[in-house]
Design a protein that fits this description.
Elements lengths: L14 E5 L2 H10 L2 E7 L6 E6 L2 E6 L5 H14 L4 E10 L9 E8 L4 H6 L5 E3 L4 H11 L4 E8 L12 H5 L2 E5 L2 H11 L2 E11 L4 E2 L2 H19 L3
Parallel strand pairs: 1-4, 1-5, 5-10, 6-8, 8-9
Antiparallel strand pairs: 2-3, 3-4, 5-9, 6-7, 6-10, 10-11
Helix pairs in contact: 2-6, 4-7
The structure holds hypoxanthine.
The site of hypoxanthine has 11 residues, from β5, β9 and β10.
Length: about 240
């Protein structure tokens, strides 16, 4: 049991799939995993452990934003001996060169956030994915002909902003899209010597204001979830 997760020791698998939304975690547990058991529901942030093609996997939410994923990923890595976290989420594209439903395997996350600095004394503005899981995802995507782009992304603390232009940090590091969590996940994994990847589906194109609908979201997410799960089988 940790401060924010009530599962017992040993009730969480070495590999965790982490969507932002607790109901998405529930959907994965109920529809894609086998024999999934609810192991934590503190704050309605559900964690389940089950199997996928015989491999034990947990799925649970990160919540939204850097502080939230910072807490959950830290507790999973340090209190539950988790080796690998794969964030599965959505992002907004800064460029119409990306299309709705495009799948991105994040190479590096750039952020104005001071999280890495104050948590770990890490002054870097950009942090890479950690360990081998990024490459395993790329290999799996190639084998299954799922088109997956690798890109730098911007992890922002802000969802709604008054300025429509691409933020300076995103221009500096050629970030094609924005989300709100990957930087903290990568910072924690880097400091703790763990594995972390982030897979994102483009849910909105910021310059054109196109968006996928709630129903479409579910279909898009299924592909991303299956890519993540099949990649885990290679570990
Ligand atoms: N901004 C930040 N995070 C997001 C967005 C966005 O436009 N779309 C999906 N996640």
């Amino acid at each position: 049991m940790s401060v924010h997760i009530s599962a017992g020791k040993g009730e969480i698998a070495k590999v965790v799939l982490q969507p932002g939304d607790p109901l998405r975690a529930k959907f994965i547990a109920e529809n894609i995993l086998t024999d999934a058991k609810l192991v934590s529901h503190t704050r309605n942030i559900f964690y389940y452990t089950g199997t996928y093609q015989g491999k034990e996997i947990s799925v649970g939410a990160s919540g939204m934003g850097i502080p939230s994923i910072g807490i959950y990923s830290y507790e999973l890595f340090t209190e539950y001996d988790v080796d690998t976290i794969i964030r599965i989420g959505t992002c907004g594209a800064y460029t119409p060169d990306l299309k709705l439903f495009d799948l991105i395997n994040v190479e590096n996350a750039a952020s104005e956030s001071t999280y890495a600095k104050f948590a770990w004394g890490n002054d870097d503005e950009i942090i890479s994915n950690q360990g081998k899981i990024f490459s395993l995802i790329n290999d799996t995507a190639l084998e299954s002909s799922r088109i997956t782009k690798t890109a730098n992304i911007h992890t922002s603390d802000i969802f709604y902003r008054k300025d429509e232009g691409i933020p300076t940090i995103a221009q500096k590091y050629n970030c094609l899209a924005v989300e709100m969590e990957a930087f903290a996940l990568f910072a924690n994994a880097q400091y703790l010597g763990k594995n972390a990847a982030t897979l994102l589906t483009v849910s909105d194109i910021i310059p054109t204001r196109e968006q996928i609908t709630a129903n479409e979201r579910e279909r898009a997410l299924r592909e991303m979830i299956e890519l993540a799960l099949q990649s885990v089988l290679k570990m």
